[in-house]
Here is the input.
Amino acid sequence: MVSAQVIYDRNGVLVVRSGDVVAKAHRPGRATGPEFARRAEIAASLPELFCAPLSPPLDVEGRTVTLERYGTPVDPFDPPWEDAARLLAALHAVPVPKDTPPFGRPTRVARAVSRLGDGEVADAVRRAFAVLPAWVRGDAPVPVVKHECLLHGDFHLGQLVRAGEGGTWRMIDVEDIGCGDPAWDLARLAALFAAGILPPEAWGRFLYAYREAGGVAVPPDEGSEWTVLDVPSRALVVQIAATSLRLAAEEGRDLAPEETGLVAACVRIADLPELP
Amino acid sequence: MHCPKCHGYMRTYNRSGVQIEQCDNCRGVFLDYGELEALGRMEAGYHAAPPPPAWGHHGGHHHGHHGHHGGLFHALFTT
Here is the structure.
């Protein structure tokens, strides 16, 4: 008899821990085929950056299951901003491996908006979505990226773990690894800062450390970051706002002040000229 | 001490632990050995809060000052 505990069960993703090993059942229809296998291989080839699946993906009753070593997650009260930044800068400096699948478009934005309910607040989020570039909405081909990098594709603080106490941080969740514009890996933190949710000190520490580590996603001059982070962070504001509205509706509660701040940012985005 | 340039009176200031002599008359500044380097190190360690984009939240109050356990905990930590 093996004892196991559920550590994540949301949006069709189930993660179960047993001792030092976690098993992740991916969302049905996700993380399949040779592209996912290649992503897992790439992560495994970068052990200083990724806590990669321990073996090739398994097919269990039609769903992809991966096994990983258990890692300690981030303490929400003390996020390792500098380490997170250095990991990303190092990832973006890796020569793009052969046969890396493209990052493509950030598909979660349109998906989150498509799941919005009715109402004025949801309409505000939809209006902000409508002025995002057509390719982000899925209505135009993905533009050619001048300097393609290897990127994580869905970076946030839940994607960091460390092996044991005092171990070094590694990234998990390899299913969005791709080659593309590395600015998308900074988009979520940039969006939360821009919307007034992530304190300036936290964003400043992260961004400063990213530049210090030679991160190529943003130009080197302080303040110039929005030339490349503007579109990705607008997109993530829309995505997080849409996700928040859905969660609030599911939980039958009012919006928290932070969520109202996100909707306010959507209103301001909707007032901007439409992006090409 | 007196200013080597105009012989005015030099007043001592403390700027974040670095002693600086400034002339009351011509405003000239005198730095002791190592003080210029100390100021340079302070400058390197200082980075101002970065600005938000034009559409971002402007003004002092940030929504997320209650730890990260507000309504957007999920946004920092989950997909």
